[in-house]
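INFO batch 0412 | record 1 of 1 | parsing
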Amino acid sequence: MSKESSLISSLPDRPVTRSVVEAIDDADGIRRAISPTWQSPIQGDGEHTEDLIIITDDHVRYLSRERGEGWVIKRDETYADDEEFEHVMDDVHDYACDYSEERIEKKVREDYGE
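INFO prediction complete | emitting tokens
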């Protein structure tokens, strides 16, 4: 099992905080870990996310926490060089933002009605 696969399987089945994302960002084999969207709780702890973009030396992966499934890889793109990385990162980031926003809007509709 790769370090990244191990990292993904070790994610808790709950939203993660900035400190967790920062710890992932510092993990071996990870170039960068970011969240395309942050949510603020109504009460309780600070901001959290259910969406991560994890960048390694040759992959950009978008993970989303799905109810009942845990963290799922929604997009997995490879790149060969810095120029290709820019295009891949833009594509994955745009996809992640759109997917996350749709999911958040759906949750709000479910929780509060339309």
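INFO post-check: Residues 82-112 form the longest helix (31 residues).
INFO record closed
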